[in-house]
Specification:
By secondary structure, the chain is mostly helical. It is built from 15 helices and no strands.
Length: about 325
């Protein structure tokens, strides 16, 4: 097991380097440092002196990949090393407004997790329970109308749930604030509506997927054997079918866990939550490429961590799986 984890971690290094190179190339091929300076200065007629000053202040006056200087400076005194390679040691530099990106990420991670974790846990419980119930009453009227409800729910855009929830619950009924964020225990008033909307908007697609997984297990030999031994249907479903269906469920669930730190772009933006999702949106709108590059890199790292956790979690639910 340990050798497998080490091997997977070593595989992740060239993947991250490749993602970093591609991201860097995309940013600086589409927008050169001169273009970035013109966008940030925000004036129609920018003098070459102003552009050069902006580049010097932010370290964009250096060569992209290779410096003509000899020695180690040939590689280290470049934009790629300063802006991209240092991210491997957690040095994300500064945003265009001068604020430290790593400090901003640490400060905004809390609000993002405050929404993402309850939505993830509650949503997983609701969808798995609902899907298992539909599979238990398969081929019945309850199953039919449950599938119809899921198809209808997944056919509606998540933006509709956000706008509709804000209008009905916050503006008409005035039960919770329409947007914003609070400190301490007061934060729950701002979080309850985004969490509920996040759970409701994901019920349709997740429930249909889990229901399909459970129905595939129902017809297998070990289920017929359990029934032949006289086990009650509830024991068959909750002890046998649910356990064996955990492997495909874990494939999607564990990968999502690290990405919870990234926050939700739409939810945080519409509800005014100062998390990483709204931070990314604000950076895109402000053409702050330093922040966007950092968030892309963090997302890649978290996704690879999720894949490794998925493989490890397989051994916990299926003892037949062992890594050599």
């Amino acid at each position: 097991m340990l050798a497998y984890i080490v091997r997977r971690l070593l595989y992740a290094i060239p993947i991250l380097i490749g993602v970093n190179l591609i991201t860097f190339a995309l940013f600086f091929v589409v927008n050169t440092p001169d273009d970035m300076a013109r966008m940030q200065l925000g004036v129609k007629r920018v003098t070459p002196e102003a552009i050069e000053k902006w580049k010097v202040e932010r370290g964009y006056d250096k060569p992209l990949f290779v410096n003509a200087a000899g020695g180690a400076a040939m590689l280290t005194d470049t934009i790629f090393f300063e802006k991209s390679v240092r991210m491997f040691v957690g040095d994300f530099g500064r945003a265009e407004d001068g604020r430290d990106i790593a400090r901003e990420i640490a400060a905004r991670m809390g609000p993002s997790l405050a929404i993402a974790l309850p939505t993830f846990i509650l949503g997983l419980f609701v969808t798995v329970t609902f899907a298992l119930t539909l599979a238990f009453f398969r081929a019945s009227a309850f199953d039919f109308w449950g599938v119809v409800l899921c198809v209808a729910a997944m056919s509606i855009s998540g933006l509709f749930y956000i706008i509709g929830g804000q209008y009905l619950i916050s503006k008409v009924w005035r039960l919770v604030p329409i947007s914003g964020f609070g400190d301490g225990l007061d934060a729950w008033r701002f979080l309850i509506l985004p969490v509920v909307i996040g759970v409701v908007s994901g019920i349709g697609s997740s429930t249909r997927w889990y229901r399909t997984i459970f129905l595939e297990e129902v017809s297998k030999d070990y289920v017929r054997t359990a029934r032949a031994k006289g086990l009650p249907e509830t024991i068959v479903f909750f002890r046998h079918i649910l356990r064996n269906a955990l492997i495909p469920i874990l494939t999607g669930v564990v990968v999502v866990i690290p990405l919870l730190f990234m926050g939700s772009l739409l939810t945080e933006s519409f509800f005014g939550i100062p998390g990483l999702g709204s931070y990314t949106i604000d950076a895109i709108n402000a053409q702050d490429f330093a922040v966007v590059r950092s968030m892309v890199f963090i997302g890649s790292v978290l996704y690879i961590v999720g894949l490794i956790l998925t493989d490890i979690s397989y051994t916990l639910v299926d003892p037949r799986i062992r890594f050599e």
